Q: What sequence folds into this?
């Protein structure tokens, strides 16, 4: 038994390409912040959530946008740090 539709079939008339282009600006990541977090990771052996909390506390003193946990994880893993030990 087949059900009949009471109305016409819905037709989506939105232009999705125009909507995707105006989503918003991407997050701007500063290189010095990534390197600073990478040094915290290597030298102090802190975890990513700890670094996120550290940045939130630091952002109260200095006004800047704090990236979330996943962004910190992705960006810090891409930084190559070489520490020369005597």
A:
């Amino acid at each position: 038994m087949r059900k009949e539709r009471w109305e016409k079939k819905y037709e989506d008339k939105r232009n999705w390409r125009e909507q995707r282009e105006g989503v918003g600006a991407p997050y701007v990541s500063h290189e010095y912040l990534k390197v600073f977090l990478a040094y915290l990771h290597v030298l102090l052996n802190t975890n990513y959530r700890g670094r996120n909390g550290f940045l939130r506390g630091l952002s109260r003193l200095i006004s800047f946008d704090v990236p979330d946990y996943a962004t910190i994880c992705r960006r810090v893993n891409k930084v190559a740090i070489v520490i020369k030990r005597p």
About this structure: The first helix runs from residue 16 to 21. DSSP finds four helices and no strands in the chain. The helical segments are 16-21, 31-44, 48-61, 69-77.
